[in-house]
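Sequence in, structure out. Go.
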Amino acid sequence: MNLLRSAGIPADVEEPAIHLSLEEILRAREALSSLQRPILGVNPGATFGSAKRWLPARFADVANWFKRDTGGSVVIFGSEREAALAHEIDKRVPEGKLFLAGKTSLRELTALIAECEIMLTNDSGPMHIACAVGTPTVAIFGSTDPELTGPAAEGHSVIKKEFSCSPCFKRTCATKDLRCMYTVTAEEVFFRIKEMLPGKRAVFFDRDGTLCKDAHYLKDWKDFEMLPGIESLAELRDKGFLLIGITNQSGISRGLLTESFAREVNALFTEKHGFDDFYYCPHNPDDHCGCRKPAPGMLLKARLQYKIDLKKSFVIGDKDADMLLARTVGAQSILVTTGKQQTSPYADAVAAGLREVVDMILSNEEKT
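Output:
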């Protein structure tokens, strides 16, 4: 897909996505609960051969710098066959780590990668898993070509040195010096990770029933009514929060409203009310897409685009789907009673409207 796009050939291919159940995500989150965040996932293996593997000592250098710089932790991944490589890193990283090489099933590995703030890996299966679950990824390439097998989604980063012998697509280095990997330094990898590490905070808002009156498939401006308190959201921006809208709009696929009208309504919030962006899912529930709430696709896209730390963010909405979305990504949730529901078993807090939401978040800021 990357090669087709670089050649200017349209490639109508969806970005990869893996569905994880909430139970799988919560188990992974619990498994990592003893670690300080942010968490860097490290995958030193590559099944195809040694020509695809960066040096374990340099993985360890990056891991140690990451811990010192961020106060976070490291998880060392790998298959059972790659455990020896993983142990080389483990013995060089004295603390603030979790060794999981050879200890997880494929589904467990996927959920654990999804719970990391960022992933460092060779060109490998776990690289593609990280991209498919929306974890920001730095991938090191040597003998292979990122145009062919690189991350198949936007927002990830590849480090590769150009040599006449690379890409060679060989399992072992024909020149015996593995120059394509040796010339990738730990310093440049660490600084690339620092550039990509999500650190911003955001407040994500549902639209209908939360920001404006739920008109049941809003399709005409005459039915639009802004809910009170919209002006108070500026106080969140003043505290450094991004304001991002997230809305399910299945009326588009049902033929009940036009996509252009949905975009017009969303643009009202970005153009007049200081929102940084507004995402929408046009799909029908039967499409089983990865972006329809409570699936996390819109938030994962926002994380990559704006470098958002989802676990330091908030989701505001009027339905269980919004509250479950927050739980899925580890954000805090606030249910507003201006829409579909007055209570939710999944909400961390309940507010009467937007003004109270702002007060709750600012109060939480003062406590922390």
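Check: The domain at 201-367 is CATH 3.40.50.1000 (Rossmann fold). The longest helix spans residues 56-70.
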